[in-house]
């Protein structure tokens, strides 16, 4: 190997220094080397962070992140620290649950989505606040963060039902609610439904816009009764097409 590098005009000592630097970084990150052949090395992340936490007595940097919410990744400055894995009770326990080996893993059910087996539906929990992800993932559900003043990252006509709980109370002072409703119209299938929750004044405003979008909607009382100030607007996107135009003949 050294002879090849010399013929290529590279100093083997430079490569050795570079490799040593990479290994030093990997050890600081609590990775373990699983195989090495010539100048190729494969490193693997540990199944938990028990050894990593103990190794901070030797490796002071990078430290374990002290953030209360490791899932907060949007609109947040990056830190020079190691994101901690979920806590375990023993060194051989896999943080977050063990996975099947390949190729069985391609067809196995991951530990975090077992809760979806009870119902034959596909649910995407869309949250406007990043710190709510823990409530979703730890229950075996899936979700995504969405700023409704921006476009939703999906193709048109993807969803059958949207449950908009408190959405417009958050965004009504940030952007035009018409833009949000048009985006919901884009991602909702024909005859799909949206459940809006809010005050009567807000729901009346939403209804006036959805009526112009040819949705059928109705305002009704909250599940707890008519004395609850929060009301419900049930809106259904109708299936319609533009009228055919006829060309006049001279």
Automatic annotation (TrEMBL):
SUPFAM superfamilies: S-adenosyl-L-methionine-dependent methyltransferases. GO terms for molecular function: methyltransferase activity. It is a single-pass membrane protein; Single-pass type II membrane protein. It is found in: Endomembrane system; Membrane. GO terms for cellular component: endosome; membrane; trans-Golgi network. Its EC number is 2.1.1.-. Belongs to the methyltransferase superfamily. Keywords: Glycoprotein, Methyltransferase, Signal-anchor, Transferase, Transmembrane. Its main location: membrane. The keyword Glycoprotein applies. The keyword Endoplasmic reticulum does not apply. It comes from Quillaja saponaria (Soap bark tree). GO terms for biological process: methylation. InterPro entries: Put_SAM_MeTrfase (IPR004159), SAM-dependent_MTases_sf (IPR029063). It comes from the Eukaryota. This is Methyltransferase. Signal peptide: none annotated.
């Amino acid at each position: 190997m050294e002879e090849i590098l010399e013929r290529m005009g590279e100093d083997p000592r430079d490569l050795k220094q570079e490799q040593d630097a990479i290994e030093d970084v990997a050890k600081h990150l609590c990775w373990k080397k699983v195989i090495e052949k010539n100048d190729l090395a494969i490193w693997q992340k540990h199944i938990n962070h028990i050894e990593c936490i103990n190794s901070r007595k030797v490796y002071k940097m990078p430290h374990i992140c002290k953030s209360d919410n490791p899932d907060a990744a949007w609109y947040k400055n990056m830190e020079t620290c190691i994101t901690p894995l979920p806590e375990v009770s023993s060194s051989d326990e896999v943080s977050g649950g063990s996975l099947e080996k390949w190729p069985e893993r391609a067809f196995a059910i991951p530990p975090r989505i077992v809760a979806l087996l009870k119902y034959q539906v596909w649910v995407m929990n869309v949250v406007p606040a990043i710190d709510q992800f823990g409530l979703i993932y730890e229950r075996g559900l899936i979700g995504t963060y969405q700023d409704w003043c921006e476009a939703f990252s999906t193709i048109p006509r993807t969803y059958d039902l949207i449950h908009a709980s408190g959405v417009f109370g958050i965004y009504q002072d940030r952007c035009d609610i018409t833009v949000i409703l048009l985006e919901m119209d884009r991602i909702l299938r024909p005859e799909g439904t949206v459940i809006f929750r809010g005050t009567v004044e807000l729901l009346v405003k939403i209804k006036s816009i959805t009526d112009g979008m040819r949705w059928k909607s109705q305002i009704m009382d909250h599940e707890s009764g008519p004395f609850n100030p929060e009301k419900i607007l049930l809106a259904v996107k109708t299936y319609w097409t533009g009228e055919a135009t006829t060309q006049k003949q001279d």
